[in-house]
Amino acid sequence: MRLDRVESEADLLGAPTSNSEIVKVVAGDFEVRLASSEAEIDAAQALRYRVFYEEMGARPTDAMAARQRDFDTFDDICDHLLVLDRRRGEGPDGIVGTYRLTRRAAAARHGGFYSAAEYDVRPMIEYPGEVLELGRSCIDKTARNTATMQMLWRGIALYSFHYNIKIMFGCASLPGADPAPHAQSLSYLYHHHLAPPEVRARALDERYVKMDVLARDAYDPRRAMARVPPLIKGYLRLGGFVGDGAVIDQQFNTVDVFIVVKTDLVTEKYIRHYERGMRDSEA
């Protein structure tokens, strides 16, 4: 398993690339871009703490509780994607959404991907071309709307296009640490959206929770899909798949599933939107 592949042509040539040149979209009052300062990363960690620990019942470490921040060592090697509502402020005060983005070489420097603590991610590591791990997705409760989520996806599309990402992956969550209430949703995901073998990560044996607890004909697929969290539905609409097995995350009070998405649909959707906007502006 090799993680230490060249990230991009810029890495190969030693040419620096400013974060501000990679992702930058302004739409009305909203802006999506990568964090450009420690203060913005700190604000993203504060948002994560409010959502994960204060709202969703995750269990912080003593250090996290003291700082009121969600943080770990992956924050030092990843890129932090931000959505800002500029009515609230131009910098840290305006941050209403965030994603954590980790590419292959960054994970290699860290010793592996975050999701490797829950899943055997060898299919991701061995996949030809650049790969991207998505994590720590959250939106402030006052900004949970289609516009904010679309801005996050536009940022991910631009980032994926810039680095020629072939697949993106990560853990997505269902609320609560008991899989029983999610039997229909987990069974539906397994029966209808299981990843093909070449990109199918499997939960580690010691953490494996069976997903197909119900037979395919033992539930109503429409009702089961209705119970799937919005973020996972978004991945599925992009042609995403799930891995084999769920995992209980006691710290975050969630049941996790592995998500993998080939980036073609994401980048093509954004490029079509961008080209349409360019034509409209020239008319």
What is the mean predicted local confidence, pLDDT? 88
Percent helix: 25-40%
CATH topology: Aminopeptidase
Number of helices: 11
CATH class reads: Alpha Beta
The domain tally reads: 1
The major β-sheet equals:
9 strands, mixed
Unreliable stretches (pLDDT < 50, length at least 5) are 1-17, 277-283
Helix-strand category: alpha+beta
CATH superfamily label: Gcn5-related N-acetyltransferase (GNAT)
Give the strand tally: 11
CATH architecture: 3-Layer(aba) Sandwich
CA radius of gyration is 19 Å
Shape: globular
Query: What portion of the residues fall into strands of 2 or more residues?
Result: 15-25%
What's the order of the H and E elements? Answer: HHEEHHEEHEHEHEHEHHEEEH
Distance between the termini: 51 Å
Structure summarized in a few sentences:
The protein is of the alpha+beta class and 283 residues long. The chain has helices at 9-13, 19-22, 38-55, 62-67, 104-110, 122-125, 146-163, 183-193, 221-226, 230-237, 264-282, and strands spanning 24-27, 30-34, 79-85, 95-103, 119-120, 130-139, 165-175, 202-203, 241-242, 247-249, 254-262. The longest helix is centred in the C-terminal third of the chain and has 19 residues, at 264-282.
Structural write-up:
The chain is of the alpha+beta class and 283 residues long. Helix content is 37%, strand content 23%. It has a single domain (9-282), classed as Aminopeptidase (3-Layer(aba) Sandwich). The chain has helices at 9-13, 19-22, 38-55, 62-67, 104-110, 122-125, 146-163, 183-193, 221-226, 230-237, 264-282, and strands at 24-27, 30-34, 79-85, 95-103, 119-120, 130-139, 165-175, 202-203, 241-242, 247-249, 254-262. Strands 1, 2, 3, 4, 6, 7, 9, 10 and 11 form a nine-stranded mixed β-sheet that branches. α7 (146-163) crosses α11 (264-282). The protein is globular and about 50 Å long.
